[in-house]
Amino acid sequence: MEFSSKLLERAVNEMSQLPGIGKRTALRLVLHMLKQPKTQIQALSEALQSMRNDIKFCKSCNNISDVDVCEICANPHRNEKIICVVEDIRDVMAIENTSSFKGLYHVLGGKISPMDGVGPHDLNIESLVHKVKEGQVEELIFALSSTMEGDTTNFYIYKQIQAYNVQTSTIARGISVGDELEYADEVTLGRSIVNRIPFETSLKS
Amino acid sequence: MEFSSKLLERAVNEMSQLPGIGKRTALRLVLHMLKQPKTQIQALSEALQSMRNDIKFCKSCNNISDVDVCEICANPHRNEKIICVVEDIRDVMAIENTSSFKGLYHVLGGKISPMDGVGPHDLNIESLVHKVKEGQVEELIFALSSTMEGDTTNFYIYKQIQAYNVQTSTIARGISVGDELEYADEVTLGRSIVNRIPFETSLKS
Residues of B numbered 5-44 whose beta carbons fall under 8 angstroms of chain A's beta carbons: which are they? Predict the structure, then answer.
């Protein structure tokens, strides 16, 4: 792609470094910005920079926060004995949206994935094991995605904490609410039958 | 969407103002940025700001440029008597990529579109008509997209310059090279038959 302006080219190159944004999309976005007021581009730049420079990670759960300990961890009404282990902050937001969990979270920051060069020591596993060792935790809920990497990570953590007195559970896998059975994949359908729950229980949720 | 950090929320809100980028995509991009070195985010911010603040539009053709007169207009080897009228700078880049045009361009900056509140006076039509009036132009090539708005714009300009001694043409509409006839739409196929060209001519291009 040949540009008539170095400034334009630089802006397009920088934008196209973002994931999922190619040169054409970057050009479209950048040309849109040219039509916006200067103040708006300044606001965008400042927001990105101050986020990158000033954002903090909660000392306890590694969630993104503006203060040292995030709102969830600092909330005295939440049950600190139950910890939900998630991959990243988007999962925290998704679970919080359901309003069905009143414990705390622990954000790993990824999954063990040797193919991508991510080992256990690149994730926040040590601090989680530490919490368990200290006897602060009654139940760990594994809420990682159900992939090979997610399962590996679950199992790795499980091995580390097995010796301590802590319950472990994983979120239920099954047919999504509203889904047709005939379109479900075999593994999910099979698991949903093996892990069936009493009908009375299903009436309550 | 509830955010655990105001800084994050602000960054997501600013990013999601860009066209085609919703809150979820913005969050994904912003979380990606958090994992990048601070210098990279700074480079992105600076590139966007300096582009928005310092970029110029060519005085002659309205193309984006770093200097007052763009490279194309300043090139003495190009034929200044032939002007290709396009909608925006992306069209200039697309035509330049083909290396088949050696005249100059005139970038309108949009199409006449009453539905979107864009009238003739919002576009760079006046300066084009001025060029024609001064007798600087021998041929105008209309290369706008073949939509109602494009046709309206073509016709508006044509009416303005009709009285002067200038040839006008539009780019050829027809079946794309490599396309199967059976999948072409009727209008395109019909036009391609009405506007057929001598076989000898087609051998040369």
Answer: 5-8, 10-11, 13-15, 17-21, 25, 27-34, 36, 38, 40-44
